[in-house]
Design a protein that fits this description.
Radius of gyration: 18 Å
Helix content: over 70%
CATH class of the largest domain: Mainly Alpha
Structural class: mainly alpha
Shape: globular
Number of domains: 2
């Protein structure tokens, strides 16, 4: 039963990332998993519930253990670099979450955005907020989180075009170098405010 649920989540995440929410039917998911459409409803009440569960599963799978690792580090700057490195590695290894997240931001469906924020981000957001307040007391923590995430997302996507641009340095495209760069740039900006 648990194995079927995980296959459903994995397959749904793959299809939603590739084709978007509107481009995927419950029949498509059932066919890919090799079960009947009715069997999906044993696990999820409707397509919305499956979608939110798949996005949440992807996010939790890719952030698993990062919070515990961060809790073991006293220096907020070191926690930031660990966080950025872990996010880069997770999103590079499994781009489905990144694709779904970017699609949702572009489509701007408030109902789905609220469901994803509540289900997928809630537990992870609080330690991030705390970290930002440690790094920049009195500043807008949410704005800092968005700025950090924006750098991470953009750099992952921009690496696709970087080799075709002049003055590209191959050494700056690997994940550890990128994590250090984003962390250093972010901390420099925070300290200048």
């Amino acid at each position: 039963m648990q194995e079927t649920r995980e296959r459903l989540l994995d397959t749904a995440a793959e299809l939603f990332a590739r084709q978007g929410y509107a481009g995927v039917s419950m029949r498509d998911i059932a066919g890919e998993v090799g079960i009947t459409q009715a069997a999906i409803y044993h696990h999820f009440s409707n397509k919305d519930a499956l979608y939110v569960a798949a996005v949440t599963w992807l996010f939790e799978k890719n952030t698993l253990g990062v919070g515990e690792q961060m809790a073991e580090i006293n220096d907020p700057a070191q926690r930031l670099e660990l966080l950025i490195d872990a996010m880069l590695q997770a999103m590079e290894a499994d781009p489905r979450f990144r694709l779904i997240y970017m699609r949702e931001l572009l489509e701007n469906d408030e109902r789905k955005l609220a469901a994803i924020a509540e289900s997928a981000f809630a537990a992870f957001y609080e330690p991030l907020n705390t970290l930002m307040l440690e790094l920049a007391p009195g500043k807008d923590a949410q704005l800092l989180i968005f700025s950090m995430a924006g750098m991470i997302f953009h750099h992952l996507e921009a690496r696709k075009i970087a080799p075709y641009l002049p003055h590209t340095s191959a050494g700056n495209l690997d994940t550890p170098s990128l994590a250090r760069h984003i962390s250093d740039l972010f901390l420099y900006g925070v300290r200048q405010q």
